[in-house]
Amino acid sequence: MTIEPIEADDPESHSADIVSANIDTLRTILPDAFTEDGVDFDVLRQLLGDDIADSDEKYGLTWHGKRNARKAALTPSTGTLRPAPEDSLDWDTTGNLMIEGDNLEVLKLLQKSYSGRVKLIYIDPPYNTGNDFVYKDDFRNPIGHYLDVTQGRLTSNPETSGRFHTDWLNMMYPRLMLARNLLRDDGVLFVSINGGELANLKLSLDAVIGAENAVATVTWLKRVSPANDAKWFSSDHDYIVAYSRSKSSLSPEWKTSASDV
């Protein structure tokens, strides 16, 4: 199999431009809000009527770096996905695909082909126990091999750090935004987590997907026999949080099964 080289100016060497796509969508819905110079926010506010949050006191989760975390999801990646038939099994007949790479960059590259098409996403992120690793995102360099990109930038996130929760949120937020874009209307995102970041995860998903699309928070027993070795209460369970892209689009069969869990 011959793989043709991709030049830097080739459209295939860049991930989807989500900001431009959002602007095009808004222009289609509210063309009056645009001038030849761009968005007229005064007109946009008028067209949106009373649905404008202009108070300094808002309900929601905020932290230092949230604006940059949102920007990180919208920053296009310079890279592309290349097949590796020599490292594959049954390349010509398999219906499966495994992608090796930094998950944030891969999520960006998948936006072109899979936006709004994925039925199920399951992620098992770091639980932020203080011993697991938090990846320091850096968008100044093009995507490369995962081990090259992350070398020296996987660091533990101890609870003694003053940015303990902030570092975790800055890592998770852009990934949740991009995962949401990939879901089709009846698609569902499942996220495993423990009690330490459960509240922050749910508030993040409320912001990214919408609290109205929360499907369930499932409690699952992670030990067959309780350990009973904790200082206060034994934590013998973790959680799986489920959100749908559009809860109203879920099939009756799916909702019936979910309600029985």
Explain this structure:
By secondary structure, the protein is of the alpha+beta class. 33% of the residues lie in helices and 16% in strands. It is built from eight helices and eight strands, in the order H-E-E-H-H-H-E-E-H-E-H-E-H-E-E-H. It has helices spanning 18-29, 41-48, 66-74, 103-114, 146-150, 164-182, 198-210, 252-259; strands spanning 34-35, 38-39, 118-123, 133-135, 154-156, 183-193, 214-221, 237-244. The strands form three sheets. It has a four-stranded mixed beta sheet. A hairpin with a 2-residue loop joins strand 1 (34-35) and strand 2. Helix 4 packs parallel to helix 6 (164-182).
What is the topology?
Layout lengths: L17 H12 L4 E2 L2 E2 L1 H8 L17 H9 L28 H12 L3 E6 L9 E3 L10 H5 L3 E3 L7 H19 E11 L4 H13 L3 E8 L15 E8 L7 H8 L2
Parallel strand pairs: 3-6
Antiparallel strand pairs: 1-2, 4-5, 6-8, 7-8
Helix pairs in contact: 3-6, 4-6, 6-7
